[in-house]
Amino acid sequence: MARAMWRGAIQFGLVTVPVKLYLATESRGGLSFNLLHKECLNRIQMKTHCPIHGEIARSDTVRGFEYSKGQYVVIGEEDFDSVPLKTVRSIEIELFIEADRESQATSFVKQAYYLEPEAIGRKAFYLLKSVLADEGLSAICKIVLKDREALASINPYANTMLLSTLYWPDEVRSTAELDLPEEDFDFKPAEKQMAAQLVQAMRGDFEADQYVDNYRQALMAVIEAKVEGKPTEKIDIEEAPTKIADLMSVLEASVAAARDAKSKSASGGTTAATASTSAKAKKSEKVADIASGTKRTRTKAQATKAASAAPKEERRRKTA
Amino acid sequence: MKQQASTDNEQLPLHFETGARQALPARLRPMVPLRGESPFDDTEWFFEPWWPGTPALAYVEDFKVRLQIEHLADPMAAFPELASIGSQFADDQLIVDGTLLVLDDEGKPDADLLRRRLADPTTRDGTPAYVASDLLYDLARPLMSRPFGERRQQLSALLSDGDRCVVSRGLHGEGTTLADAITSMGLSELSARLLSAPYKPGASDEGWLRVPVVETPAAPTRPLLALLQRLPL
Which of A107, A255, B23, B120 has a 20 to 30 Å separation from A20 between CA atoms? Predict the structure, then answer.
């Protein structure tokens, strides 16, 4: 595994458990890109630059604290070691709380770390873990990490425990800044029941490995294609064949053809020419009718035609 | 201070409010068309092809689709491709009457492919598609007593054509023209619906006829020429 980023000891009461800390997560949110010079595609350099001495090496820098405008005091590594705090090199457990979701205090997590007990403290470590698990408790503790004292919680996790650093209460913004309603809403029992049903229908076990960062994968595919010199085609979302629409087009074409044939037979036959032209006029309207599939209004021409339609008795006879 | 919640109409609609959002009936007995004799023209009727598929009711509930096909316990297992058609409807809580087809590679309805699917729900040959003809429920409210013409209009308004589901096409009044058209497509029956007729679940009625278009001995009122043209040559 990666290098431990911290060594120290969990302390509560008289018990001391030496542990190491490892980062539990890595951020892969976005792919990282480098800035290049547009002309020559060389990577640009960020140089450390002193306004008096020009370019200097990064190793020639120290950390300064601005205690008043333009006034700095230099803080070196030795100063960090001499910080008079008990929590240096130790994880001081302050109290144990119910590990349920009600405890808002642990909602704002900065970073999660895996704890690894040193060989000598394993028994005590797993004793602590089993007590937390059995009692459903979280340990709230303080730890100094990277020059800062952090509030943290310790929880059992898989075959070890997880230390999550938390935001200090004064770092958590108030919801008072939001535009939230003051009134309570009255829900009808039916609404509540419906909402409950919807939620119930979507309940499941969260299996995190079923979720992937699709955007990252798609972006990676574009990059890989470019590396291999392929044109980066826009990936079309797979489209199902529009076969049923085709079938409807065939029907529309057939109807048009059938009408054509009919009008020809009508004009070639003995029927009066006027009848045939009025029939043609109707036809153009009705082609639109069948083509759009939506136009359902009856035209006047159709309405007048109703007068000459077969009498109802005759239609009845058509039923077997 | 606790106030009464602002009036409902200022809030986004809760689709399940009003308590009227009852569940759809679990099962509806489809209407059975009567057998007609031969194609006819009548402006009070609407004619559409009798597609060579299986009659199917489609239930859209919570935007999920459930099909009901006679003698098939779990139609969605046999036609999983149709699970997505719910998104083509603008409303929810509705029941549609229509025909389920299985199309071959050329896009023609294939009764054999359909039979294979029905017999073995694990088969995945062909492309299933649904042709909607009638709207029986909308927003959980029954429409079956409304005239067919109105139901069909409402169906057209809320179903947008998609890859696997369309509103059926047809002609007002011109049964014989449609008969000619579908004969040339190799189809043999049409569906004739009286525009003013209600939908009668589980029953038959003269408002819905299933009419063979294959030529039966002369209908005496029809001109001979038109008759000849319908004969496959």
Answer: A107
